[in-house]
Write a structure and sequence with these properties.
The structure holds two protein chains of two kinds. Chain A is about 40% helix and about 20% strand. Chain A is α/β, with parallel strands linked by helices. Classes of the chains: A alpha/beta, B alpha/beta.
Chain lengths: ~375, ~290
């Protein structure tokens, strides 16, 4: 059904279709609309779920963990400080191999207080064992949320999935949304290690180095297997519902000499910049990185690369730029832009390409060359 | 005692310290709860007592969770079981540090939300698992590894904090009175909504008394009125048998204090303050039970 919705609404509509048994959440801007909408669905009887209005994000994830291992699908949503506050439990959910799904509406971190878009919140959870996908449109927020449950619950994965959407730039932007009848796209929730009082087990007790090491390797093995599962699920999604996704969304990359790599809404905006550059005779393309964990194999050989990071690792550099350098060996032109919701137009992105300096790092608007 | 089932849900030869009263309590808690129960355990002595993977000393599922998260995890679990139409008991078994300090927020939230679960705090009055550091539940004057000169402030009154949430059932218990504990767990689990039991669990290495005195130490805590056994059902207070006598004629506080190394060389002024605290507590609960306040 074709409608108009915000990014937040799109996530909530997808969650309604996924029918989680428990939704536990705590409000935080700019995520709050997601859980408000879900609370409304539950109150109105449109979603048969237990809505647990917890007293903190730490408890939100703890409740999702308890629900998930008890045998129901569990969902939460958060942003920024909320994500950081639940950090301990973010690790726990992955270590416990629970397919919790969480929407994270990407937002900057204080101080000073800033509720606008930035990716540092999600990247701070990079090593937790969660799969992370970043979306660029309202439609994709809906589609990725639906697929997140399917991927997380696949027995070859059994890891939690974080769906990331940019604060305000997507969470509060209205775009068209085509909702679907999901049919049996999501099978009934089945967790092989769900709590069974007929077969009492200890979950997460003291564990010696040999077993602990094996469990960590098992997470990594599943993370590697997840690449194939994601591809399968995205393929099935395309066959069922006609919309196609991959580890990246490539735009005019085939013959490009220079490729802009960005994530989230900046990755969509880059497409407009590419058209401008092409009009000027610059053979540019854009590659919007969708999956951050597991990190995909990127085909960038022989191209110049401009990476826009809406994040920063102090004392090191842009997280995406360094990830690409480490994965491909290509030394990109690294642009740090959009932190704390800084405005970055498609003209600015075109300028990044026009004025690129491979191997250098630029903080847009502060020490830039543009 | 004949009413207590013979089934064991905590098997023998755990890694508990000799004379551990918290594992004695757990044995009776599980006997009262029966097999359709899940134990949620944050970091505490029970994290160790249950054994090392892949073994388990428990005949019920035990879900280990991070220190601050037990009540919240139990919330999610309880809601999930309800969604699945299951009546499995969800029981948190947490130490005093995990309850009165780092876990108090999650506990408060779970109580306020009306979570259908039983939260049991076994209180050995310090962080036992990490080697006896002071917690908010450590009493005035007690020496711990982080209060080598004795704790300068009073024990946090957890029960009055819980009481402020008006749970349908709450009780205190003590490891020296297992039948009383058994009955309280049974009763708690028969009531829907949030239930809370606070067990005083003397700890030989932490309190520094001989292991064979663990039951005696619990009895002295009750007989001196330091620990009062009571229940609150829908707000109505009932003082339980052993404490009724103790509150009328409490044994001298020294009977309890002198046997414990943690109170060695107690300043007489501190002892006096402790006496006052015991007397005030007895008076407050007596007046309430008599309907005076």
């Amino acid at each position: 059904m074709l409608t108009i919705a915000t990014g937040n609404k799109a996530v909530a509509v997808a969650v309604k279709a996924a029918k989680p048994g428990v939704v536990a959440a705590y409000p935080i801007t700019p995520q709050t609309e997601i859980v408000e909408q879900i609370a409304e669905y539950v109150t109105d009887g449109d979603l048969e779920s237990r809505y647990v209005p917890v007293e903190s994000e730490h408890s939100a994830m703890a409740a999702c963990i308890g629900a998930s291992v008890a045998g129901v699908r569990a969902f939460t949503a958060t942003s920024s400080h909320g994500l950081l506050y639940m950090h301990e439990m973010v690790h726990w959910a992955a270590g416990a191999r629970l397919p919790v799904v969480m929407a994270n509406v990407n937002r900057a971190l204080g101080p000073g207080w800033n509720t606008w878009a930035e990716h540092t919140d999600a990247f701070s959870q990079r090593d937790t064992g969660w799969l992370q996908v970043f979306v660029g449109t309202v439609q994709e927020a809906y589609d990725a949320t639906l697929m997140a449950f399917r991927i997380a619950e696949d027995e070859r994965v059994l890891l939690p999935v974080m769906v990331n959407l940019d604060g305000f730039a997507l969470s509060h932007i209205m775009q068209s949304l085509d909702t679907v009848d999901i049919g049996d796209f999501l099978p009934p929730y089945r967790l092989p290690h769900a709590i069974d009082t007929e077969n009492p087990c200890g979950y997460g007790p003291m564990t010696g180095p040999a077993d602990y090491f094996r469990f960590r390797w098992d997470i990594e093995r599943s993370m590697r297997d997840a690449r194939g599962v994601i591809a399968e699920v995205e393929q099935e999604f395309r066959e069922r519902f006609g919309r196609s996704y991959g580890p990246t969304e490539d735009y005019r990359c085939e013959d490009a000499d220079v490729i802009v790599v960005a994530m989230g809404t900046l990755g969509k905006e880059a497409e407009v910049a590419i058209d401008r550059l092409r009009d000027e005779g610059i053979r540019a393309g854009s590659m919007r990185l969708r999956w951050f964990r597991p990190f995909p194999d990127l085909d960038l050989a022989g191209r110049e690369v401009v990476v826009i990071d809406r994040d920063y690792s102090f004392g090191f550099g842009g997280v995406v730029a360094h990830s690409i350098r480490s994965k491909t060996g290509i030394v990109p032109y690294s642009v740090i832009a959009g932190l704390g919701g800084q405005e970055v137009t498609y003209n600015d992105i075109a300028d990044f390409v026009r004025n690129r300096r491979p191997g250098e790092e630029t903080w847009f608007g502060v020490n830039d060359h543009v | 005692m004949s009413a207590i089932p013979k089934e064991e849900y905590l098997v023998k030869c755990t890694s508990a310290c000799a004379g551990c009263s918290s594992s004695l309590c757990l044995r009776y808690v599980l006997k009262a709860a029966g097999p359709d129960s899940v134990l949620v355990v944050p970091a505490c002595c029970t994290s160790v007592i249950q054994g090392i993977y892949p073994g388990t000393a428990m005949n019920v599922p035990v879900y280990n969770i991070a220190f601050a998260a037990a009540a919240a995890c139990a919330s999610g679990m309880s809601n999930a079981f309800s969604a699945l139409g299951r009546e499995t008991n969800v029981i948190v078994y947490a130490g005093d540090g995990g309850t009165v300090d780092i876990g108090i927020q999650a506990l408060s939230g779970a109580l306020e939300r009306g979570t259908n679960f039983l939260y049991i705090c076994y209180d050995n009055e310090a962080y036992g698992n990490t080697g006896m550091q002071r917690s908010g539940s450590t009493p005035l004057g007690a020496r711990t590894t982080t209060t080598p000169g004795g704790k300068p402030t009073a024990k946090k009154d957890l029960d009055r904090i819980v009481e402020a949430h008006n749970p349908p059932y709450m009780a205190t218990a003590c490891s020296a009175y297992p039948l009383d504990l058994y009955k309280k767990v049974k009763k708690a689990l028969s009531i829907p909504g949030p239930k809370f039991i606070h067990i005083l669990a003397p700890c030989p290495p932490g309190w520094r008394y001989p292991t064979e005195k663990t039951v005696e130490m619990g009895k002295l805590a009750v007989k001196t009125g330091t620990w009062i056994l009571y229940e609150r059902e829908y707000g109505n207070l009932t003082i339980n048998g052993p404490s009724k006598t103790a509150m009328k004629r409490p044994a001298p506080l020294e009977d309890y204090i002198n046997g414990q190394g943690r109170f060695k060389n107690l300043n007489p002024e501190v002892l006096d303050l402790m006496r006052q605290q015991v007397a005030q507590n007895i008076q407050r609960l007596s007046r309430e039970e008599a309907g005076v306040c």
